[in-house]
Amino acid sequence: MALLLCSAWAAAVIETYEFSSPALEARYHALSQELRCPKCQNQNIADSNAPISQDLRRQLYQQLEAGASDEEILEYMVARYGEFVRYRPQMAGPTLILWAAPVLLLLVGVAIAVVVLRTRRGAGEQLSEAERKQLAELLERESDA
């Protein structure tokens, strides 16, 4: 058990950057939580040990120290790695379909259910008088049997 704990500790991401201000360090931590590792896919760059995440963290640090805003940094990362690099993609363009798809599918499902229920309910009303008598006779025979 002790070996497992030691190996988990050894695998942790350890990088030390000297920031010129505590505000930059706070922005670094917030942005590194916001950006997804392109290789790991379900980890942010702060938690990933992949070489690409190390490069992204280094770029993030350099851009912050160079005076780039959060928006500029995110735009750069998206331009280079695609919208996938963000954990919370913007609601624009192709991602708008992903944001709207659940609502649209729910509305389509409700519309289909309404149409099916109305056609089933109206099916009995479309029988002629002769057909109704025949149906009643058939049902009576079935109940007698």
TrEMBL record:
**GO MF terms on file?**
metal ion binding
Keyword match Membrane = yes
Matching entries from InterPro entries are given as: C-type_cytochrome_biogenesis (IPR051263), CcmH/CycL/Ccl2/NrfF_N (IPR005616), CcmH/CycL/NrfF/Ccl2_sf (IPR038297)
Q: Which domain of life is it from?
A: Bacteria
Tell me where the transmembrane regions lie.
Answer: 96-117
Keywords annotated in UniProt: Cytochrome c-type biogenesis, Heme, Iron, Membrane, Metal-binding, Signal, Transmembrane, Transmembrane helix
Domain CcmH/CycL/Ccl2/NrfF N-terminal residues, every copy: 2-139
A single Gene Ontology CC annotation of this entry is:
plasma membrane
- What protein family is recorded? Belongs to the CcmH/CycL/Ccl2/NrfF family.
User: PANTHER family under this entry?
Assistant: CYTOCHROME C-TYPE BIOGENESIS PROTEIN CCMH
- This protein is called Cytochrome c-type biogenesis protein
